[in-house]
Specification:
Layout: H1 2-29, H2 34-60, H3 64-93, H4 108-125
Length: 127
């Protein structure tokens, strides 16, 4: 059952990732009306919320060591995310760097990368 729930969580993550990538492409390349744009954003919010719920449900089925690994991975990812936001905020205060047109949308995938880094570090610790 644990493998099935974990696979189900990964499936939702893939559905969200594909939909998010397609949505970003269409919203940035094409002129779409406001109601359709809001619908696309709402679908992404719904998919991400579903993924989050499924991920939390899959963590509830793990044993204590696996839960500890997940918690440590999220803690590392959170700290790295705060560091990134702090650096981007400070860099945004500097006027001559030319980052006026930088979209923070491209920072979003880094949060998942930070989680994977935290998971790698945490799993090595509990081998």
């Amino acid at each position: 059952m644990k493998e099935k729930m974990s696979l189900f969580s990964v499936l939702w993550a893939l559905v969200f990732a594909i939909c998010f990538t397609v949505s970003v492409y269409y919203l940035s390349k094409y002129s779409i009306s406001v109601p359709i744009s809001l619908l696309i954003i709402s679908v992404n919010v719904l998919l991400f919320g579903t993924y989050t719920v499924k991920f939390i449900q899959s963590i509830k089925l793990l044993d204590e060591v696996q839960i500890r690994i997940q918690l440590e991975a999220v803690s590392i990812a959170f700290a790295l995310s705060l560091l990134l936001v702090m650096v981007l905020g400070l860099v945004g205060l500097v006027e001559n760097l030319g980052l006026d047109n930088f979209s923070y949308l491209y920072v979003f995938p880094l949060f998942f990368l930070f989680y994977l880094i935290g998971l790698f570090i945490s799993k090595r610790k509990y081998r």
